[in-house]
Amino acid sequence: MLIGGGYLLVQVRLGNLGLRRSNTLTATALPSATPTRSLEDFARQAEEAIARGDYRAAIRHYESLGRRRPNDPDPYWRAARLMVFIGNAPKAEQHVRRALSASPGHIPSRAVQCMAVEWQGRVEEAIELCQSVVDDAPDYAPAHAYLAEAYASAGNFQAARIHAQRAMELDSNHPDVVRNMGYVFEMMGRNETAISYYRQVLERWPNMPHVMLALGRLYFATGQSAQAVRTLQQLTETDPENADAYHQLGVIFQTLGEFGQARMALDRAIEINGQHVRALAQRGSLNFQTRNYFGSVEDYTRAISASQVTGVAVKPIDYVNLGFAYRWIQDCTRAQEAWNIALALAPTDEMVQRYVRIGYNQCAQ
Length: 365
Hints:
two-stranded antiparallel ribbon; Serine Threonine Protein Phosphatase 5, Tetratricopeptide repeat
């Protein structure tokens, strides 16, 4: 998010006005060329795109700016920050590396780097990176906010609250600072408090897709299904390419028994991102629930393949369901393979153990 007056570049690209002479030596101006977009234009258009929640357009503008200013870290880290929020943390990390190659030690770039690492599940690495930024720039609020996020993901809520509060003291007008205070409370299970912070963010900075997604998820978790659906549908209007929003809608509609709506939402998520592991697994669950066992096997298999590429884990319960889908199409060999993986992933989970025992007994009959 661009704050404090935004990102303003004062150098502009100038065009040349040429003259030509006719046979009578009368000077006439050349036809005006298409005006060259200035660096200032790209920055302004990025800000405008952010304000309306179109992070993808903002990223394109920052990338265009970066190509024209390859030694300036700012366009790269700003694009990277938005990439994290639309679910592309690996590419964000690549952009941050470019920023740091242009300016080693650049504090905002290092802060976004630690966030991008944390969003990929490398929590301990993120804590180390964030802590190094805090050590070098103790008054940089986003660094404390991202460190709080990483500590919350690690379950160290005492440290998370300390750094979240310090971030608020330093800059309560930064959207990531307010959002991450909400995230800390969400991880602590204090959903209503988290909701209040997420609402504060959207009241002050409307149309932030990742905050709308979190708010929709928490509305559903607190039994406010209608509000969750409205929030997520608004998100799909703001960001039509947000596969996570459609996935979450699919989860909600399936839970509510609205299977047709669930299928449309999950189909759209997978259309946007064919390697969306959670959407593929959820549609596998939906197919299993509606007794489309061949479809269930296909989707769970696709989810497992996508997991190997993206690093997003397939859950033990998904392997349990995959095993039962195989059992219903009379393939107990593959069913038992799936159940064994579920047990290996969750050896102490009593629910997984119970369902696997039921499956083995059914296959033995």
